[in-house]
Amino acid sequence: QVQLVESGGGLVQAGGSLRLSCAASGIHFSLYSIYWYRQALGKQRELVASITDSYSVNYSDSVKGRFAISRENAKNTAYLQMNSLNAEDTAVYYCNATELVRNYWGQGTQVTVSS
What we know:
By secondary structure, the protein is mainly beta. Helices cover about 0% and strands about 55% of the residues. The strands form 2 sheets. Strands 2, 4, 5, 6, 9, 10 and 11 form a 7-stranded mixed sheet that branches. Strands 1-3-8-7 form a 4-stranded antiparallel sheet, with no helix packed on it. A hairpin with a 2-residue loop joins strand 9 (about 90-100) and strand 10 (about 100-105). The radius of gyration is 13 Å and the shape is globular.
């Protein structure tokens, strides 16, 4: 059974930092590209960051320079380090694992930034 479990969300003051984790099981993790999405209340889900199986990374303009995505294949885990958080970063954050036609989602973790 495939599972992606996000953790590390919570309430943080503006300017603070959080590190989200996405722990995978049931997949050959190293073959998958990992995507972090977020969805704020009343808004569409947006892609925040991605890291391929070959460690190529990309970021949305809204988080570039503040967020860092990484992965640790030995632990089947991906991370999203989030710095200089602001109120606009408040959302539910989801991780996604994709390999060709296989696509899996986690349940999400809430990040709330107080101003």
